[in-house]
Amino acid sequence: MQDTGENQLFEHFKYIVDKGQSPLRIDKYLFNKIENISRHRIQESAKTRNILVNEKAVKSNYKVRPDDVISIVFEYPPREIKIVAENIPLDIVYEDDELLLVNKPAGMVVHPSFGHYSGTLLNALAYHLRDNELFKSDEERPGLIHRIDKNTSGILLVAKTENAKVNLSKQFFDRTTERKYIALVWGNFDENEGTITGNIGRCLKNRKVMSVFPEGDLGKHAITHYKVIERYGYVTQIECKLETGRTHQIRAHMKYISHPLFNDEEYGGDKILKGTTFTKYKQFVQNCFSVLPRQALHAKSLGFTHPKTGEKMFFDSDLPQDMAAAFEKWHNYVQSR
Q1: Given 27, 68, 149, 264, which residue is catalytic?
Q2: Is 138 a catalytic site residue?
Q3: Which among 25, 87, 219, 322 is least surrounded, fewest beta carbons within 10 Å?
Q4: Which of 318, 313, 319, 317 is nearest to 99 (CA)?
Q5: What residue numbers bound the domain in which 133 lies?
Q6: 88 in the same domain as 75
Q7: Beta-carbon contacts of residue 37 (< 8 Å; ≥ 6 apart)
Q8: What proportion of the chain, given as a percentage, has pLDDT over 90?
């Protein structure tokens, strides 16, 4: 907790710069350290004097030095950003007394975090379930069983009771759920299906992304099964079935086997990685990027056992318009060649 003399400020993040750190702009340093944040958000925090180095506010172009103590501070305690009920429309696929399934749009963050204090799925759920006991509790992420990335669309399961949360969480832990994703990836495959096995953990150079560690103790065990749905020559539509549920699992695994997701900025898929040098082709790919301005990944279906009735349940979702449009463009491109 800090006090600058004007009002009380609460520390949300604190970093001590490594002794071997070379001079680096603080906005870039924090961008590499903090998940789910843009450089613009960091620069705005610096403008409002919320970034302190050795207890003094600094500008975003400040160069960090070894042993600097960096604090990010706000006028409210960290837990206060937890959940504020907001009347945001939800695409609810199914709901009963124990649980609900929501089709999350791309661009929506699942839960509040640094740089995303409002407009998240949990803010919307807090309003929809404002009379629910679980959502009245002090839990930081009530009802959440699993997550999908901000720019990934698709089905998400939410518990409405403590019993359902425990039961469903155990199903995810025991890998008895069935999750399938649809993705568009760069490159062609020699085979029609395959399995990727490799531990996934935070990248040692950039904490915002995940790396695959095929050997050793780094990261957590992860398995992704995939099969080809449609080949477009330079890119391929695939279905991925998760056996484990690690952060950025499909995105990291596909990059690891040199098939990064189409237009996945964080994993290198936002560049033209396959194809011709013709200007017309380059323009076509840029048009596809414009139609699908995010990584091409959709959590299409989810199967699990109902926590109260024991019934096997399975839910499927339609492809979002942006992915469907990109698939159609590639399909037509292949047909016209």
Answers
A1: 149
A2: no
A3: 87
A4: 313
A5: 82-173
A6: no
A7: 30, 31, 114, 115
A8: 67
CATH number at residue 231: 3.30.2350.10
pLDDT digits (tens, 9 = 90+) for 147-172: 999 999 999 999 999 999 999 999 99
Check residue 6 and give its pLDDT: 42
How far, CA to CA in Å, does 256 sit from each of 197, 252, 265? 10, 6, 15
Asked if residue 230 and residue 316 are part of one domain, the reply reads yes
Lowest-confidence segment of 21-25, 112-116, 179-183, 244-248 by average pLDDT: 112-116
37-75 per-position pLDDT tens digit: 778 878 888 888 889 999 899 999 999 999 999 988 876
Q: Characterise 98 by phi-psi region: left (phi > 0), alpha (psi -120 to 50), beta (else).
A: alpha
Per DSSP (E only), the strands in the chain are 2-3, 8-16, 24-25, 51-53, 56-57, 63-64, 69-74, 92-95, 99-104, 153-159, 178-186, 193-197, 199-202, 210-213, 223-231, 235-242, 297-305, 312-316
> Could you tell me the pTM of the whole model?
0.77
The chain-wide mean pLDDT, for the chain, equals: 89
Say what the pLDDT of residue 4 is.
38
- Pick the last residue of a domain from 45, 79, 113: 79
> Which of 173, 207, 232 is where one domain is finished?
173
d(CA 299, CA 153): 6
> Is residue 27 helix, strand or coil?
helix
CB 274 within 8 A of CB 284: no
Report yes or no: 239 and 226 within 8 Å, Cβ to Cβ.
yes
Q: How many domains does the chain have?
A: 3
Residues 186 and 165 in one domain: no
pLDDT tens track for 242-264: 999 899 999 999 999 999 999 99
Six-digit token pair at 240? 């991925």
